[in-house]
Every structure is written in structure tokens, then in C-alpha cells.
Amino acid sequence: MPTRYELYYWPTIQGRGEFVRLALEEAGASYVDVARQSKAGVSTMMKMMQAETGTPPFAPPFLKAGALVIGQTANILMYLGDRHGLAPKTESGRLWVHQLQLTIADLVQEVHDTHHPIGTSLYYEDQKSAAKLRAAEFRKERVPKYCGYFERLMVGSGGPFVTGRKLTYADLSLFQIIEGLRYAFPKHMKKFERKIPALVGLHDRVAARPNIAAYLASDRRIPFNEDGIFRHYKALDK
């Protein structure tokens, strides 16, 4: 029997859990988004994280697959990629896609730090001045550095996806990066996207895939909001 996965993540935001959702949806995998399906889901998630034995995850997202409990977004995607045709078959190919996903994770952290540069326990309003400085540096230096890197990979891939002819979970994650940056920095991205046509093309191809298109049109796709990683504050988008 196919595995029915249990995804544990916060019920009202896309966040890091969205990278996992996109892979599950593209694969047509059977899964339960636990905290969204049950009022007790969050408390169950917290209890699993606080366990003293086994392999308790540090933080969500994490995935339960049979007896396995797998934490860390890139780790979950490596597992799903191997089992659902979303990763290369060779060891070198799998490591390469995992490396790309870890680079994406670095970018996601930098996105988060644009609105919370001092501390996650503080409100955005408590660090607004520092956020303006961090966001300005992010827009000027970090977006071109990261997106320029993936643009070069797309141009050199020889195919419609970042590793060539076959879609991997890294392509799904790059789709989410462009979606998130468009939401958080719409003014900046409107100008900047002219410099990354191959990456924008990848975004559009992923969005048009039947399973992804159906997911995006469904209520399973949580809208972006100002509680997630990608947040839109006018003061940070110049």
C-alpha cells in the first residue's frame, strides 16, 4: 500500500512547510496536513517535538512516513524526491539537487531576516529601522546574488528545468521562491525580473503543471500573509 504521509506544520502560514506541500502535491501523494485537519493537531505536533526518546524534530516542518519522523525541509525533500521521482537516480545527481535545496534554505533564511533582523521573538515594529537597512541590502546585493546563481544554472542546464530535462523538487522550490519574492517585494521584482528570464520561465512552467495548477487553485494553498516567511511591508520594498 502507498504511504499516507502526515505533514506537521503551522496551520495558517505557508512558511517552510510549503516547499514540502508542493512536492507532495506534484507527486500526487496521499497526505494529511495534520494541524489544518484537526484542532488537536498543533498540540500533537508540539508533543512530538518535546519527546525525549526516538528522533524528535527540533521544529516544524516534519513528516511522518510510517515509523519514520523526518525533520528539516531539505531532508524531507530528499526523502520524497527519492521515492516519488522528484530527484535524479544517480548519487551525484541526488547530492547536487540536495545541495541546491540547501542553498535555497539559506535564501529563505535571509528573506526571513529582512523583517526580523534582530530577533524572532520581537515584533516587526520593534525592529523596523534595522529591517529597512537589512531589506535594502537584501534587495541590492542578495537577491541578485542568489537569483543570478540560479539563472546561470538554468541557462546552462540544457533543458526546461534546473538540472536539465527532468523536474526535481528543487524546481518546485524555485517556483516558490519567485512567488514569495513577488509577494514580499513586488516593486523591486517588477524591475528585477527582466534580469532573470530563465528563472521566471521555470516558475511559469512549474505553475502550469496539472497537479501544481490544481493545488494553487484549491483551498489547500494557504494565501501569503504577514505571519509567514515572505511578508509584504511597503517600507521594505523600494
UniProtKB/TrEMBL annotation:
Listed GO biological process terms: glutathione metabolic process
Keywords tagged on the record: Transferase
One GO MF term attached to the UniProt entry: glutathione transferase activity
Record has Transferase as a keyword: yes
Stored Gene3D superfamilies: 1.20.1050.10, Glutaredoxin
Domain GST C-terminal, chain residue ranges per copy: 90-236
Protein name per UniProt: Glutathione S-transferase
Organism annotation: Rhodopseudomonas palustris
